[in-house]
Please model this.
Amino acid sequence: MGMAGQVCIEIRDVYKRYKSAREDSLSAVSLDIIQSDVFGLLGPNGAGKTTLISILCGIIPVSSGSVRFLHNGISYSDHERKSRIGFVPQEYAFYQELTPRQNLDYFGAMYNLSKNRLRERREHLLEVLGLAKAADEKVGTFSGGMKRRLNLAIGIIHEPEILFLDEPTVGVDVQSRNAIIRYLQRINQSGTTIIYTSHHMSEAEEFCKNIALIDHGKVIAAGGLQGLKTAHGAGDLQTLFIDLTGEAYRD
Amino acid sequence: MFKLFSSLRKELLLLINDKVGLALMFLMPLLLVFIITIIQDSAYKMVNENQIPLLVVNHDQGKEGEKLVGLLKGSGLFKIDSQNSIQQQSLRSELLSRGKMIALFIPATFSAGLESNAEDVSSILMDDLGLEHDKTGREKVSMPKLSFYNDPVLQENYSYSVMSVIQSYMSVIENSLMIDRMYANMDIAERSAKLKDKLISNRVGIDQIVARNNNSTAIPNSTQHNVPAWTIFAMFFMVVSLGSNIVKERVNGSFLRLKTMPTTFMVVMLSKMAIYVVVAALQVALTFSMGVWILPQLGLPKLSVPDNIIATIAVIFISSMAAVSYALMIGAFAKTEQQANGFGAISIIIFGAIGGILVPTFVMPGFMQFFSNFSPLHWCLEGFYVLFLKGGSWQDLRAVFAFLGIFIVLCQLGTYFKLRLERII
Model:
């Protein structure tokens, strides 16, 4: 792992416009994400959070601008990036017909884990994320919380340096949300950088160190959470969010 | 290698868990081969087998009717079912209820009428030659008529062919009777055999030469059509399993997730293709085994396995690749599983219908035979026909490989560009 305090992702003047769209989904986005940070990308529906995460994960290209992944100040290739990042999408992106063990075996192999390492990581994650008892049952029968935990386990099976989470706790009960956040805090303490989107302001306030508020594809505020609240005279993150993005419906 | 193994394992597990897909791919062809082969067997026998099933009702009170039946039996062309107790009025319904397609009714005065006619001919000859003969005590009986019944579905030219065969045997009987009568009137009856033999037996023969590519002894029958036909149909029905499998992975984000991983999408696609090509090979093994071992136990024709094993493997491989490629394309274009299943299944039924799976192309009208060229199932079936019925030379398979090759490339390109558009590749 690199040293904390160093920039690990440098986003410069990024624009994104989808084909046949009349407006930019992202416009002049520039951000630095620091090693070992928990960085919250927050904003209303359609603000551009998922688009930015998709760009950072290499799923879609930028229309213009640049994204650099850095290790000790030196940028690395797309191919290397794929080994260093983990991605937990909003959807249950796994096989409902398979068991958690089978899913983890498959995705772990795709991350180039050796057989022994894969077995070790799989059993560890099943245990810590409370899936061990149902490890050989088909995922299709699972509750939303169990599916979310499996979705997370797949994204971190290879112990990524940087973890992207697109609304990892949406639609789950308090217990599952608590388990997920606690585990994410644990891996962050061991050095994993986390970039995270959520609509749960209280959760983000508890979890994030730095945030960027995005609206209409633009970064409207970015920096340390406490500093932003103080600068805008907001008592909590939800007040800050409403103050900056307004109360009008977005969908 | 571990990646490829894991990917193959995942595809296999998904397949094993797809119970409906497995039933469609393995149970359906067995049932279809079994049912359709039984249903079509009599029709194929009608066209292809040496023995034509013929219901004969002989009410003749003399011996010529029996002689005609004997000649028909002796010809080896007919499988005679003699039912002399049936009345002529009920023959139509008996014909249909017994599952026969043709019947012959010999009237009670058959022998008497023929003998009377032979006597008339003989009298004319004796009179013309100025020879004396006995002209008294002969009862005049009019020339008899045979009645020929046929199922309305039977083609007209087929009925005429059978009637012509019966006519030719009638000529034998009539000529024989006339010679006998003439020799008897001349009081030299014991010498008639030589002339009869010369006139009846020593006729111009016809050598039949079947145009085949080599020494293959295979002849078309219901098994040889239905076993490959329904196997191909089931191969293409993998669209329901493989197509919806791809839609699911596209829609649930698994494909996009893979894009963030240090792997190539080629591994995923190769694994899918490999597993489903093996599925297709198993389908062939299963249905062909049925054709070789089970169908003969039910009195149906046995499937004769082609001699050219390499060509057979090549035809199975290219057919399965065509089926897999089509399923991949449907999976790439469909927006939902329902779309993939619905459109996939209906398109296969239509391709099957125009491709000669349901009804062989040779019985289709000309314009439909032309359209059958646009069905990949037709070319797959054509490949098996070349193997089974024409000896299976590589020369004959060239068109099959060319068409299916083009089809596979088009489907793969379609899949590639669609997935590329969606930024999955």
Notes: Chain A is about 35% helix and 25% strand. The longest helix of chain A spans residues 174-189. The domain at 18-92+162-245 of chain A is CATH 3.40.50.300 (Rossmann fold). The beta strands of chain A are 7-16, 26-34, 38-42, 64-71, 74-75, 85-88, 162-166, 193-197, 210-215, 218-224.
